[in-house]
# Entry
Amino acid sequence: MAEKWYPVIDYSLCEECGTCTNKCTHGVYDKKKAPAPVVVNPRECVDHCHGCGNLCPQGAITYVGDDTGWKPPHGCANTEESCGCGCH
# Structure
């Protein structure tokens, strides 16, 4: 599991669809708060896994420690390059 890798949710983009909380089988998200994605066990995230981020329909997930150049495949609803989501 990862020491410096975990998902970060941009709640301004998140629609609380539950896709990420249902995808993750490592206990990173609080299942009791689902479908809202609340990261409770960041160290349980698998290093360089983009599973939940690849599935997020809003592009609301980025990762602390991501040095891979990965970008949310579904983009970001925010068109401003300075939005801070890391997808531009």
